[in-house]
Amino acid sequence: MKLAPFIAVEGPIGAGKTTLASMLAEELQLPIMKEIVEENPFIDKFYQNMDDWSFQLEMFFLCNRYKQLKDIVSEYIDKGKPVISDYHIYKNLIFSDRTLKGNEREKYRQIYHVLTDDLPKPNIIIYIRAELHTLLKRIAKRGRTFEEGIDHNYLQQLIEDYDAAMTALAAHEPSTHIITINGDVVDFVENKEHFEEIATQIKEFME
């Protein structure tokens, strides 16, 4: 039986994940699952002191994303209905591997696998890849207060971490189709043709 599309839009901070996922949800008439960001009570403290608040931040994200994923499994995926998300839960490992160290990292990875190993993974990933200057421009444009002092080195490292993660996913989850978008060149917000090209690729997988 052909699986209903479970589409995830991914990329580092500021790539435009939520914007693209929302546009595609409207174009394709799909329900959308959006990640919780600003509701995380530890996020301001994290950007002020990453070492002290990383574990609390990452655990909050993990538990909330786990609950969201369980909900879409029961509401859509188990019923054969397509759905789109503005994240892949795998991002928890991308970020935690960067922010956590030693025993805390190992504990976190164990909890992650206990919670997520038996849950469905997206069969389509749209990966928005962009360089630092593009991400910084988009971060400034959306104007989130807690992101104003984001460490440029941290953001650059996330770009590299995402590249490595997508390569790993392609190798270990061959049933997942990854569509990579050059976010420095493709402007799916201002250029209608750019967006339509992305939407067309997704429609082909839904036929």
Automatic annotation (TrEMBL):
Superkingdom: Bacteria
InterPro entries, A to Z: DCK/DGK, Deoxyribonucleoside_kinase, DNK_dom, P-loop_NTPase
CDD domains for this protein: dNK
Active-site positions on this chain: 86
Assigned GO CC terms: cytoplasm
Pfam families: dNK
Matches recorded under Gene3D superfamilies: P-loop containing nucleotide triphosphate hydrolases
Full protein name: Deoxynucleoside kinase
Keyword Kinase tagged: yes
Domain Deoxynucleoside kinase positions: 7-206
Keyword vocabulary terms for this entry: ATP-binding, Kinase, Nucleotide-binding, Transferase
Residues reported to bind ATP: 11-19, 138-142
MF-aspect GO terms: ATP binding; deoxynucleoside kinase activity
Family to which the UniProt record says this protein belongs: Belongs to the DCK/DGK family.
Organism of derivation: Paenibacillus mangrovi
